[in-house]
Amino acid sequence: MQNDDRVLEQILDESIASYSEGAPLAGMEERILARIRLAETPSSGITGWRVAFGAGLAAIVIGAFFFSLERREEPRLTNLAWATKRVEAIPIQIAVPQIVVKARHRITRMTALPKKPVFPTPTPLTAEERRLLALIKQDPEGTALAFNSLRRKSDEPIVIPPLESDDGQ
Amino acid sequence: MQANWAAVVHRLMDALPDELRLPLAFSANDELRSSEIAKLLGIPEGTVRTRMMKARQILKQKLSRLMGELYAK
Fold first, then answer.
1. pLDDT by residue (tens digit) across A57-87?
2. B38 touching A (Cβ < 8 Å)
3. A7 CA: distance to closest CA in chain B (Å)
4. In A, which residues are within 8 Å of B60 by CB distance?
C-alpha cells in the first residue's frame, strides 16, 4: 500500500514537473503581465480614495467661496438693522379679524324740520262727523237743544244701585 | 509506461480549475516559491499552499482511481 502511494507520488511529481514543458501555461502570461501592470501603477484603491477626497474638498472650497460672495453682496448692517431687515423681508400673513365699529347715530340735523302753520295737522272729517255737521246745518236749534240735554245728563252724578244677591245680602 | 501516465496526469491537470492548476504549475515548472507565486497571483501565501495541496490531492485521487480500474481489468 505504501509502495503504491510512493509510486503515485513519484508519477505525480514527474508528471507535474514535465507539465507544459516548452509551452507557456495557459493564462500564465496574461496573469504575470496583469500583476506587473498592477505593481507598476499606484494602487487603484488608494487613488480612488484620493480622487474622492480631492473632489469633496474642492466642492467644499467652491461652496465656501460662493457662500462668501453671497454674504459680501449684503451691505454690512448693525445687528438691529439687520434684524429689522430680516423681519421686513418675511411676508407676514396674519388673518386680522375686522372689527366693525358702529358709529353712534347722533341726532344732528343741519336743518330744522318744516313747521306747519296749524298744529295738530287737520285731518279730514270722518263720516260720523260729516253727518253731525249736516244735522247741525239742517236744524241748528234742535241740535243745540239735544246737545244741552245731553250735557245736563252728563253733569248729573252717576248713581250706582247696590248689587242684590240671591242670599238677600 | 511512465510517459503514458505523465500524459494522463497532464490531461488531469488541464481539467483542473485555474485557481488550482496555476499554483501547482508555477511551483513545479518554474520552481517558484510560495511567496513568489502569491505575489504573481495576488493571493495570500497560505492560500497558494492550500491550493497546491488540494490540486495534488485531486490529481492523486483521480490517478489512483484510474490505476485501480486499469489494473482491476
1. 999 999 998 888 877 665 555 555 555 555 5
2. no
3. 10
4. 8-9, 12
Instruction: Please say whether the beta carbons of B6 and A15 come within 8 A.
Output: yes
Type of residue found at A122: P
Task: For chain A, say whether B59 makes contact (Cβ under 8 Å).
Answer: yes
Q: Which has the closest alpha carbon to B60: B14, B12, B15, B22?
A: B12
Measured between CA atoms, the residue of chain B closest to residue A10 is B2
Model ipTM value: 0.84
Contacts of B24 in chain A (CB under 8 A): 16, 19
Task: Summarize pLDDT for A79-125 with one digit per residue, the tens.
Answer: 555 555 555 656 666 676 777 777 676 666 677 777 777 766 777 88
Question: Which residues of chain B does A23 touch, with a Cβ-Cβ cutoff of 8 Å?
Answer: none
E strand intervals along chain A: none
Q: Which CATH class is domain B2-72?
A: mainly alpha
Q: In this structure, are residues A36 and B33 in contact, taking their beta carbons and an 8 Å threshold? A: no
Residue A112 vs residues A5, A13, A24, A84, A144: alpha-carbon distances, Å: 146, 142, 133, 57, 44
Task: Assign A129 to helix, strand or coil.
Answer: helix
**Could you count the other beta carbons within 10 Å of the beta carbon of residue B55?**
23
State whether residue B67 sits within 8 Å of chain A by CB: yes
